[in-house]
Amino acid sequence: MKDKKVVFMGTPEFSVPVLEMLIKETNVIMVVTQPDALVGRKQELKYSPVKEVAVENNIEVYQPIKIRKEFEYILSKNPDIIITCAYGQIIPTELLETPKYKAINVHASLLPKLRGGAPLHRAIINGYTKTGITIMFMAPGMDDGDIITQKEIEIKETGNVGIIHDKLSILGRDLLLETLPSIFDGTNTRIKQKDEEVTFAYNIKREEEKIDFNNSSLEVNNQIRGLYPFPTAYATLNDEVIKICEAHLGTSTNGTPGEIINVYEDGIGVKCGDKEIIITRLKPSGKREMSSRDYINGKKKESLMGEKLC
Fold first, then answer.
1. Is the distance from CB of 201 to CB of 115 less than 8 angstroms?
2. Structural domains of the chain, with CATH
3. In this structure, what DSSP letter does residue 14 have?
4. Which of 23, 168, 172, 281 has a Cα at 20 to 30 A from 157?
5. What is the mean pLDDT of residues 205-224?
6. Residues in CB range of 201: below 8 A, 6 or more apart
7. What does the pLDDT look like over 246-270, one tens digit per residue?
8. Are strands 61-62 and 81-85 parallel, antiparallel or unpaired?
9. What is the pTM of this model?
């Protein structure tokens, strides 16, 4: 496959294993990624993880602000194929149709389930027991192109978005490597997505990070798992923002939603709509992430009982 000219389009850490594989196995002639971003308190300009890999490998980097208006330069490179993975912008039809082998995408869900920008988070938040990777031909709509190959993994009860992210990133790399030969020799399958099975995974909004303890303990636990370690669910305790990192289901049904009803040796029991959830790791505002045991040791147990998280 070294004779195939590839333009790769991606941005976050999730995309890095895919790009590294393509550099090894094909001829990556250009990397397209989002513009550099200002990050941190000092607002320092930072490369995307994908750009860092491209620079390390002396590959040309192109960072259009709006790809829909700035795609002609990509076509001037005459790529054989365009491969995308978590790029972050809608790609114009001209880029999808012009290359010899068209444009394909590595998507982190089992399409047609969870089309959109946050499939990792939504799979866990929505209580899915499995997810996976789809290699697909790109189409003008959002993740609605024909499916080429898929592979699934189990979402375990202790799995969070960080764990699923790392597993799917590697699975995407491996499945793409397995799939590319069939695309280049024309033996690949093309399976149309079933409209009646479509669900969406829209990007997480800030208000969705706040825990509503009126929800069931299972829903709250799925929210915590589905947002950790990024961006992380939170609640407030006496006007202090507390990020909730890890928890598990409890059994107590006393109290009202949000009330701390039990303080265990290594966890804080908070009443949800049905029963308690036991918080085992958290991050108080302005402090490091810590175990609930350490947090409890810094407080009086009696002072926590009956307090309200909201």
1. yes
2. 5-197 (3.40.50.170), 206-304 (3.10.25.10)
3. G
4. 172
5. 98
6. 109, 114, 115, 116, 117, 118, 119, 121, 122, 123
7. 999 999 999 999 999 999 999 999 9
8. unpaired
9. 0.94
